[in-house]
UniProtKB/TrEMBL annotation, chain A:
Gene Ontology terms: biological process: chlorophyll biosynthetic process; photosynthesis
UniProt-listed PANTHER family: LIGHT-INDEPENDENT PROTOCHLOROPHYLLIDE REDUCTASE SUBUNIT N
Xref: Pfam families: Oxidored_nitro
Native source organism of the sequence: Heliophilum fasciatum
Domain Nitrogenase/oxidoreductase component as annotated: residue spans: 15-396
Name this protein carries in UniProt: Chlorophyllide a reductase subunit Y
Key words, A-Z: Chlorophyll biosynthesis, Oxidoreductase, Photosynthesis
Domain of life: Bacteria
UniProtKB/TrEMBL annotation, chain B:
GO molecular-function term, one example from the UniProt record: oxidoreductase activity
Protein name according to UniProt: Chlorophyllide a reductase subunit Z
Domain Nitrogenase/oxidoreductase component: 13-400
Top-level taxonomic group: Bacteria
């Protein structure tokens, strides 16, 4: 696929509203409502029922005639009112999608009239990625809770964490907090709205993923500070623990001791038999925390030449970006398009590509042991020594499947398979580790 | 205005995409829409409905805020078409809901440039559903696009020619059904002319009129094209009688009655042997004492209902056509009817699977419709035709065996030690009673519990009810004893019943 030159294409992302549904459908007592078109509803339900939660999503059927009806706002509110009366949910997040936003449906007005409603505006043209839509959603929830006065029981020396991480990772942070003498109160997003309430009453937030900029603003407004990045890799772990200790006034000596212990534990894994010396990896996800993974892989000895993400650059990314640049990453792409990744894997010819569905698929055609970032990387622990071990084990496991990948690839590649790279193009860009590769 | 739960049908844009994308040839699709309209149908949904990781020939305008507020998308489309016209022979611009609401003027880009063409497809996404659009796009391709392609010679064969109309992307199990329909057509001595649009080159459209008859894969769409062509048309069948009728009628239109009869006889001796043997074995008794429900699009809903009810003898608890939800106000509330009469087996999509799970129904779910993340790429799993009858009788048999499996007695490894000590304790108690050293502790059944037992038993398939009732009674009493109570309550029965589902 040749990249488009004539127009600037948007960031690769599923419909951003899916990011919102990831958070909202998992919350108990929440009844999510979409306002848009049935094409949107179908696609978003499809994704949400498979990748978010087994929960019903409600939506009104709106045709073009409805959009010209001056009573539309009123009719929608009546329908929502009836739904709330019937189902008695605790909260009703109402997401204004593209068409409803374009015609000016006022979700804020709905929320003013019905206290259950959390107004959200998530559009394909305005919200830039599904990761950032999670931020918009959390911002909406925190705003609502603050309006309800759920932020007034501030507890000193307590923390909460934010970011969709593997459950054992949040437990790892909890243990770490204990070692530092801190109280770990909650992790969000979660299935329990009380966790969000707890988060609004801690003294410091650990912002584990670098796209929660709006949510961090909500915390700043009530005087809660935050640390960015995550305890990933040896150096990352050390720096993160020190930064957290500083924000929470932990005794400097204790912090230094804990930080060193944890760093050394990670370093032992990185230097051990699971190291990745001589392995070339491309990290091309769209989840928004590709930097952490790239850091870990580099510390383990891998050569990471290209890192791309769908999120935009923000101060929350700074520590990771500086580090990656210092450690030989040639290309770091924010707001990447799918074509950027296609071009990159052909150019860099990595042994392993961690990428979105389309690029992961193409990677296999080119003989790489590529995997879908979302399913394989985003769904496993990566923090501290345990996380490092887990991620490195996966890389070795993938590399071990190289003969199987070549076995199947070469079976098919004496023939131009439909809707795939032609054989000539594969030959041109075949991964260096494949038998018969040019490089 | 009504709130719909779990919308299960997409819009016109999705329909147009499902029709245009499968065709081979040097054409591309330009989506005039925001990022979500590009990646949700193309990268996400297609990955689950058809297991295709990416489509190379799909491009998009990726509408951003300034396009909505100020500029519209025409300038982007102009640039895109200008660039893509060098790479492709045919460019199809698809409108989608957002470009329609900002009134994109893309229709003015329709043009012919040095034999290459730009087409604008107004998919009417704000108003139409997926299937209406598939119907219209198939018709549009035939009426408007086909005449612009150069003529091709008729397929060199002395056999009658048959088109298959309607296999597209995004249909449940369509790869296997399509293979079976092809097998049936060639089986009676005809030949497939154009399988439109799923298995043809875009230029093959010009040969559509060469056919002697059309077979329509689905009742949901394709009829508009079939009517315009004016040839004898036949719907793809589900079930034995429907398939027989289909073959006889199709062969009559083609003058192949004799070979069709021979084919049916041959099928009975080959493909359908398995059906006959399963049917006459004791499995059949299970069918005739169990119930099913189906909620799918018309072809599958009606086909499966006729097959399971009229041919296998199942009781039909519910049969609903999904599309009705869009076209009539009296559509079935599928969640309510599932809760009212949970059938033994239910055929549906992921929405109903969720209702069954969240309400802890004992109903077994079998997929038969999208939306549903399920890989159906093997051609050996048809629901249509004779091969479909064999496959369907096989999957329901196995599902019923699995129900049996979950009800027959099991000694859980984790419980063994506990059960042993319970037995020992019970033995001592019993011996002491006989020796007059202790008073027997009787467990009583409240009237409500007895009534509830009947209610619960009705939820259990008839063929395992005897063993289930025994287990319910013994286990409920045990539970009561464990908790030092003396009366079984309806709640106790529910607790035990929930364990059956393991």
């Amino acid at each position: 696929m040749e990249p488009i030159k004539s127009i600037k294409v948007a960031t690769q992302s599923p419909c951003p509203a899916f990011g919102g549904l990831r958070v909202l459908t998992r919350l108990e007592g929440f009844l999510p409502v979409l306002l848009g078109n049935h094409g949107c509803y179908y696609g978003l339900n499809f994704l949400a029922h498979f990748y978010a939660a087994r929960k019903s999503i409600y939506a009104p059927l709106l045709n073009s005639i409805d959009f010209t009806d001056k009573n539309l706002q009123h009719n929608l509110m009546a329908a929502l009112k009836q739904l709330i009366e019937e189902e008695k949910p605790e909260f009703v997040p109402v997401i204004n999608l593209c068409v409803a936003t374009t015609v000016g449906i006022d979700v804020d007005e709905m929320a003013r009239q019905m206290p259950e409603i959390i107004p959200l505006r998530i559009t394909g043209f305005g919200t830039r990625s599904h990761a950032e839509a999670k931020d918009v959603t959390l911002e909406g929830i925190f705003k609502k809770l603050k309006q309800n006065g759920d932020h007034k029981l501030r507890e000193p020396k307590s923390i909460a964490s934010i970011g969709e991480v593997f459950p054992s990772d949040s437990i790892a942070i909890e243990h770490l907090a204990e070692k530092l003498g801190l109280k770990y109160r909650a992790h969000v997003p979660s299935k329990d709205i009380n966790d969000f309430r707890k988060a609004l009453n801690v003294s410091t937030m650990a912002c584990l993923h670098p796209f929660y900029t709006r949510s961090m603003r909500q915390f700043e407004e009530v005087g809660i500070n935050h640390v960015t990045s995550a305890p990933v890799g040896a150096e990352g772990t050390y720096n993160w623990i020190k930064a957290l200790a500083e924000k929470t006034d932990v005794d400097a000596q204790l912090a230094e001791k804990v930080a060193r212990e944890e760093r050394d534990a990670v370093q032992k894994i990185l230097d051990g038999p699971l190291n990745l010396k001589g392995v070339k990896i491309v990290v091309a996800g769209y989840e928004g925390f590709e930097f952490s993974i790239a850091r870990l892989l580099i510390e383990a000895g891998a050569k990471v030449t290209y890192v791309s993400t769908s999120i935009g650059k923000s101060p929350l990314c700074e520590p990771d970006i500086t580090w990656l640049k210092e450690h030989g990453v040639q290309e770091i792409k924010f707001r990447k398009s799918a074509a950027d990744d296609f071009v990159a894997i052909k150019k860099h010819q990595p042994d392993v590509s961690l990428a979105a569905t389309d690029v992961a698929g193409m990677g296999k055609e080119l003989g790489m042991v590529s995997v879908y970032f979302t399913n394989l990387i985003a769904s496993r622990p990566m923090y501290l020594a345990h996380g490092a071990e887990n991620v490195l084990e996966l890389m070795h496991r993938l590399i071990a499947t190289r003969p199987a990948v070549h076995n199947i690839r070469s079976f098919f590649q004496d023939f131009d398979m439909p809707r795939s790279l032609p054989v000539a193009e594969v030959d041109e860009h075949l991964c260096a580790c494949c038998p018969g590769a040019k490089g | 205005m009504q709130m719909m739960r779990d919308v299960d049908m997409a819009n016109g844009y999705w329909g147009a995409l499902a029709v245009l994308a499968p065709m081979k040839g040097n054409h591309c699709i330009i989506i005039d829409g925001p990022i979500g309209c590009h990646y949700v149908p193309v990268d996400s949904a297609l990955n689950y409905t058809d297991s295709i990781p990416y489509l190379q020939n799909v491009h998009a305008t990726h509408i951003i805020e300034s396009d909505v507020a100020l500029d519209g998308t025409l300038h982007k489309l102009q640039k895109l078409c200008g660039e893509l016209i060098d790479r492709y022979d045919q460019l199809f611009i698809l409108s989608c809901q957002e470009s329609e609401i900002i009134s994109s003027e893309a229709s003015m880009l329709e043009a012919e440039i040095n034999g290459k063409r730009i087409w604008y497809m107004a998919t009417r996404s704000l108003d139409t559903d997926d299937y209406t659009a598939r119907d219209e796009v198939l018709h549009y391709l035939y009426q408007k696009v086909r005449p612009t392609f150069p003529a091709q010679p008729k397929k060199a064969t002395d056999k009658p020619l048959v088109n298959i109309i309607g296999p597209t992307f995004g249909n449940f199990n369509s790869y296997a059904d399509f293979a079976e329909i092809k097998r049936l057509i060639t089986g009676i001595g005809a030949e497939v002319n154009v399988a439109f649009p799923f298995d043809c080159h875009i230029g093959d459209m010009v040969r559509l009129d060469d056919a002697d008859a059309n077979v329509l894969m689905y009742q949901e769409y394709g009829q508009k094209l079939a009517n315009a062509m004016g040839k004898p048309a036949f719907q793809a069948p589900i079930g034995l009688r429907a398939t027989e009728k289909f073959l006889l009628e199709l062969s009559q239109a083609l003058g192949l009655e004799e070979s069709a009869r021979a084919f049916i006889a041959q099928e009975k001796a080959t493909t359908l042997q398995g059906f006959w043997d399963v049917w006459r074995s004791p499995h059949q008794d299970i069918f005739r004492t169990s119930s099913f429900g189906v909620y799918a699009h018309k072809t599958y809903a009606e086909g499966l209902t006729a097959f399971f009810k009229d041919e296998l003898g199942f009781t039909c608890d519910m049969s609903g056509v999904k599309t009705d939800r869009w076209r009539t106000k009296n559509a079935m509330d599928i969640k309510a009817s599932l809760l009212e009469t949970p059938p033994t087996l239910f055929f549906g999509c992921i929405n109903e699977k969720i209702y069954i799970t969240e309400n802890s129904l004992s109903t077994r779910f079998i997929p038969c419709a999208h939306p549903m993340p399920i890989v159906c790429r093997s051609t050996g799993t048809p629901y249509m035709g004779f091969a479909g009858a064999v496959y369907l009788i096989q999957i329901v048999s196995n599902e019923l065996f699995d129900i049996l499996y979950s009800h027959i007695h099991i000694e859980y490894s984790s419980d063994k030690a506990k059960r042993r000590s319970e037995r020992d304790k019970a033995r001592v108690e019993w011996e002491q009673q006989l020796l007059g050293q202790a008073v027997a502790r009787e467990v009583r059944w409240s009237d409500e519990a007895l009534k509830h037992m009947d209610v619960v038993l009705k939820k259990i398939p008839f063929f395992v009810r005897v063993s289930a009732s025994k287990m319910l009674k013994v286990e409920s009493e045990k539970l009561v004893k464990e908790q030092y109570r003396d009366t079984v309550t309806p709640d106790d029965i529910d607790v035990i019943f929930a364990r059956f589902k393991r």
